[in-house]
Write a structure and sequence with these properties.
By secondary structure, this protein is α/β, with parallel strands linked by helices. The chain has a single domain, classed as Aldolase class I (TIM Barrel, Alpha-Beta Barrel), CATH 3.20.20. Helices cover 41% and strands 17% of the residues. The chain has a 5-stranded parallel beta sheet with strand order 1-2-3-4-5. Helix 1 runs parallel beside helix 2. The longest helix has 13 residues. 24% of the residues are buried.
Length: 138
């Protein structure tokens, strides 16, 4: 709904997440154009090669590769690995979900990812601060 994009900006957000799996192409494009016009950065989330093909023309969008299948809620880092070669050089890309270790981050960085969405690993940790330090390599 375009209204939600305006509301997002009015509430002070700097970025909006558009999930390709939940949006028809015409609405995805409309929301993307509106968001850019009002000064929002856009992360477009994909999970499949077909979704990636749909969002690549949105050339100012940050690409978020969700390793979690939204239908089964299972995570698999192979999603990010498989889709990495499709990310154009210089395009910002975020690997989302399923990241459990510093090794995972280093592997994904080597494949071109510059950002990471990590939730479950931190939430399930007995010591969130120590887990975060391990993930950051510090």
């Amino acid at each position: 709904d375009p209204y939600q994009v305006f509301e997002t900006r009015a509430l002070g957000a700097d970025v909006i997440l558009l999930i390709a799996a939940g949006l028809e192409d015409h609405l995805l494009n409309e929301l993307y154009i509106i968001a850019l016009a009002i000064g929002l950065d856009v992360i477009v989330e994909v999970h499949t090669r077909d979704e990636m093909d749909r969002v690549l023309p949105l050339d100012q969008a940050i690409i978020g590769i969700n390793n979690r299948d939204l239908n089964t809620l299972k995570t698999d880092l192979e999603q990010a690995r498989d889709l990495a070669p499709l990310i154009p050089p210089g395009r910002l890309a975020i690997a989302e979900s399923g990241i459990k270790s510093r090794h995972d981050i280093e592997d994904l960085q080597a494949r071109g990812y510059s950002g990471f969405l990590i939730g479950e690993t931190l939430m399930k940790s007995d010591n969130m601060a120590a887990t975060l330090r391990e993930l950051l390599g510090s």
